[in-house]
Amino acid sequence: MSEIKWSGNRELQEKLKQLQAKSNKAAAGAITGLAFDVRQEVRNDLPKWLRLTRQFLPNSVIYERADETNLTARVGFDKRADFAMLLEEGGQRKPTNSRVIAVPTEDVRRTNAGGISKANRPSALLQRKNVFSGVPEAKPTDPAGIWRAVKKTGLKLLYVYKDSTRYSRKFLHFRDTAQEVIQKNHAKRFEEAIRRTIK
User: Fold this and answer.
1) Per residue in 106-153, pLDDT tens?
2) Which residues, 6 or more positions from 136, have their beta carbon under 8 angstroms from its beta carbon?
3) How far apart are CA 63 and CA 94, in angstroms?
4) DSSP secondary structure of 57-105
5) Residue 193 and residue 30: Cα distance in Å, rounded?
6) Which segments of the chain are extended strands (E)?
7) pLDDT per residue over 45-62, tens digit each?
8) Does the reported pTM lie above 0.70?
């Protein structure tokens, strides 16, 4: 029995390596392009899914690029909006950068659109002389939170501190939108990436 054995050809091997590198580069470009498309679509659609009072949530949608060594791109919300996926799925939110979550009460002043302005968020309120954090000395059984001293009515609880808070589903369409965009733009993105690579 005779053997057919290929000992290799350096030039051919080098060409194959170059072809593989170009293939990976094209794929990374296409996948990154799709991630960008998904981010843009989600940013545009968020105001249709939720009643938004500012651009914080749309601006928090980010994507991570794919590269030639890792052909995976990611789309999601940055850590400032770590609660956002809970709006899609529902569930418990736990604090990330602190031990508790400050949950607003009805006594926090809202804007006409129903949001909370920067001036009425915890960090800004705690700069005021008549606002403090903790439990009132005169009412040790009251909950811990952010309190404001009001001359006529006494103390008002603006934010209550909780170990976690539950989010109900708001029927976002993040994953559905991602799938739709990928299906729609897949061929176009890969064609563009291949065309740029072979130039």
Assistant:
1) 888 887 767 788 888 888 999 999 999 999 888 888 899 999 998 877
2) 142, 147, 155
3) 24
4) HHHTEEEE--BTTB---EEEE-GGGTTHHHHHH-EEE--SSSSSEEEE-
5) 6
6) 61-64, 74-77, 91-93, 101-104, 131-134, 145-150, 154-162, 165-167
7) 988 888 887 788 899 999
8) no
